[in-house]
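ingest -> validate -> predict -> emit
validate: passed (alphabet ok, no gaps, 279 aa)
predict: started
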Amino acid sequence: MKEIASDVFIEQNSLGIYTGIIQSESGMLLIDSPLRPPEGGLWKGCAEQGRDCQHCYMVVLDTNYDRLLSIKGTECAIVAHSAAITPIRSRNPRVSEDSQQHSENPDVVMSGTRMLPPEIIFENELSLHLDGLQVDLQHRAGSNHAAIWVTIPERKVVFVGDSVVVEQPPFLAYANLQTWEADLEDLCSDKYRDYLVVSSRSGVVDGDHVKAMIKQISNIRKTFDPLKENNAPLEEWHNQIPQLLGMFSQLDLFNSELFYNRLHWGITTYYEFNCREKG
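emit:
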């Protein structure tokens, strides 16, 4: 576990997601969580000893499958955007080839894992307070229809989930590309000057990474827009995957297959949501 600001920590969980913890004198806020319940208990053990944790929250940053799997066993009040309720309640927890590709998890997911609905939901913004430390949650629907950014203004830290990823393709299934570009432009503005930006897939990222992400999303949008306008069949969308993978210079054999699956699943789902009714 690494402390990136006073009482703000990050650590990679078993799925490779950078998860966060904000610790106060009497409370704790988790930003995503380890997959397995026993690992979830380690958060409290890693936090500073001698503190009485009266309030514990866990913010689920979006509806990606690996995040939903991690909900069970946290013993925290779950906080999510209201748009996350349907996926959390309806997802089938059984292991399948599709779910393995979606979660990109090399470990076996136990069939007993159950996704639970959140105790706290919101539409646009929500503020939580841990002994006077304000934590702001904001709906950012670019990378995912239920995506949340978590900002700690007093510590100048913002967790942006999958809005920024470094040297890997984005998760496109539930994305709004135009909104995503706007989100990233805001992240480059004076509003977040001197902030530490934490990506769920890449850890702490800098301004150059955010600018590269803006270019990446813009290029994908420019690739997808003509396909939508021409009512192109799904096969033509899938034919764009090699071109999209070509944006990334450092892909080993394992990641090439992993990221191909990510794009294939993401494009298929994006097409189903955005184009199928036009066919």
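DSSP finds nine helices and 13 strands in the chain.
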